[in-house]
Amino acid sequence: MEKRVRFKSAWLPWLLIAPQMAIVLVFFFWPAAQALYQSVLQEDAFGTSREFVGLANFERLFSDPGYLASFRITALFSALVAVIGISVALVLAVMANRVVRGATVYKTLLIWPYAVAPVVAGVLWLMMFASPWGVVSYALQAMGFQWNHLLNPNHAMALIVIAAVWKQISYNFLFFLAGLQSIPNAVIEAATIDGASPWRRFWTIVFPLLSPTTFFLLVMNVIYAFFDTFAIVDAATHGGPGKDTAILVYKVYYDGFKALDMGGSAAQSVVLMAIVIVLTVFQFRFVEKKVQY
Amino acid sequence: MSIRRFALAATAVAAFTALPAHAQTEIQWWHSMGGALGEWVNDLAKEFNASQSAYKVTPTFKGSYNESMTAAIAAFRAGNAPHILQVFEVGTATMMASKGAIKPVGEVMKQAGVPFDPGAYVPAVAGYYTAPNGQMLSFPFNSSTPVFHYNKDAFKAAGLDPEKPPTTWPEVASAAAKLKAAGHKCPFTTSWISWTQLESFSAWHNVLFSSQNNGFGGLGTRLQFNTPLHVRHIENLGNMAKQGLFVYKGRGNAADATFVSGECAMMTGSSALYGNVTRNGKFAYGIGTLPYYPDVPGAPQNTVIGGASLWVMAGKKPDEYKGIGQFFAYLSQPEVAAKSHQRTGYLPVTKAAFELTDKSGFYKKNPGTDVSVTQMIRKTTDKSRGVRLGNFVQIRTIIDEEMEGVWGGKKGAKEALDAAVQRGNEQLERFQKANRG
């Protein structure tokens, strides 16, 4: 099927996308170019002296074992955030879709967390897990479980994953709910008449029809985990214990905004940018083929 | 627009247009003092503004020390930095190295024509902010030093003498054991691991934290806090952590809240916690000196400073510098400085402020408030003047990271200290390279 729209004049399509391109240039390409430029400089905090250092900032990064370990931590963190966030949101969306009475209330409550700033989400969950007086850690202790995210890396990772997932669930939920509501009822009714169980109906009809949504959310969640979660880590664990929750973007934020190492921070954001470009290209070239639209 | 809203807008417009009529020179002061300390800063500005009519100091809370410094740097790059910026001691080397961005306080005072005698300031404090050539670079404002805080009620309940805080580390361990036996879940904790357990620990035992007199001698300084004495202390704390005598409460000053709430019975932390504890703590509160190892010759020596100082930014009008000079002179007045010291628990800025407080009988009425002063005013040696390092923020985080391995029982003290020294030295080398010119 021919999807392409044909324009009669050559300049009209350019004119139509010009406003969007202007925004992309100013808010994406310009900062990206600045990051590239800064990553080859070394300057003092106030920018009164700057010196071209070539690739020294990158060399320093890749000779730091802590930075290399951070890749593994980031991969684990974003996989957990994406998988848990998408699965939980899907379950919630399916349930909310079936509710008849009070549906608006449920939906509103589920959308709330999205309005919370990441740093607030971090503090919120930190409070609940703070031993010994946090609600959750108190309950865990009553069950004989010693919670200590300050010194136990697994607990610390669980804490930031929970906070990050909680904040992103609303977003996933909204897309899944919209996806569910666009599935024609007739298809499901036909399957019901044929005697398919609810479980079977979901896996053979509903979920395949949701696959474009799921794929889109997978990309968005990975990008969220990569770029938007530094405030959660900063508020909840400071990257600790040791460096066990220091994901890549947290180090960018810490080196740039707290330690005032502009060159090093810029070099890290360039690395991060490269990773996301590769990931996105990979996903759209290979994964998208398996997704039906 | 409703009538009420219109009226509100009208008053707002009137208020804004009425201000410039006085032609006062405004001085922007960015700081990081929240809560009770924020009220103190506002009161200082209010009283100075009331004392004269030519200048108006406007304090603005800009978040944590890190945040206000980042905000000021961004503002400087955009060409509208504040006049005065409060910078924590960890940022001192960064500010000193940024020559084009700051104006030395000694110069400001000279230009303002304000009588200024660097010798009037408490030497251990002013020395930290003075360049090798003797010029005072920033104005000592809120310097603190680590002291030993303890909960007298908890001591009483555990059968310990509430009037006799432990003074040595072995005594701390045995007091902690008694507190634990009495049912205390958190006998001892500490804020600012690097500052209290390594930097001050070194000065207190008169050993170096880093070479070149802890960075005062020049940029070529290298860390050396992995001596047998340091290893012994961290090992000791690690063992206490294993037995539940020392409970780690997180980085920075996270442990402060656990002491104020009564959860932890003993803590090493900033002397500036005094105001917070007396205001919010619901227990009898005592202050002791920082513990030491009695078998180390020369211990105890003196502790090092923390807290912050006021830096003057470059590129302002002469009239504004005059106002800044006047303001600093006001803050240095014995009565003003003494009142600040008594209110906050920060060290007195000048010797006269200390003497005035002493004469007024404040220390006798509030036992323990003199601990920080006596710890600091002892004679300093080249090894104990303080620690002034480049990339200090990163170095302290490295120390936090490595020490968490020890408290969690994953790393030995020697291994962790060696790693911290090695990783920290990479930061120092980089700072040296960047600031050679």
From TrEMBL, chain A:
The keyword DNA-binding does not apply. It is a multi-pass membrane protein. Its main location: membrane. It holds the Pfam family BPD_transp_1. The chain crosses the membrane at residues 12-33, 73-97, 109-136, 156-180, 201-227, 266-287. GO terms for cellular component: plasma membrane. Keywords: Cell inner membrane, Cell membrane, Membrane, Transmembrane, Transmembrane helix, Transport. It is found in: Cell inner membrane; Cell membrane. GO terms for biological process: transmembrane transport. Residues 71-283 form the ABC transmembrane type-1 domain. It comes from the Bacteria. PROSITE patterns: ABC_TM1. The complex is composed of two ATP-binding proteins (UgpC), two transmembrane proteins (UgpA and UgpE) and a solute-binding protein (UgpB). NCBIfam families: PRK10561.1. Belongs to the binding-protein-dependent transport system permease family. This is sn-glycerol-3-phosphate transport system permease protein UgpA. The gene is ugpA.
From TrEMBL, chain B:
GO terms for cellular component: periplasmic space. CDD domains: PBP2_UgpB. Keywords: Signal, Transport. Its main location: periplasm. Transmembrane segments: none annotated. The keyword Signal applies. Residues 1-23 form the signal peptide. It is found in: Periplasm. The complex is composed of two ATP-binding proteins (UgpC), two transmembrane proteins (UgpA and UgpE) and a solute-binding protein (UgpB). Belongs to the bacterial solute-binding protein 1 family. This is sn-glycerol-3-phosphate-binding periplasmic protein UgpB. It comes from Ottowia testudinis. The gene is ugpB.
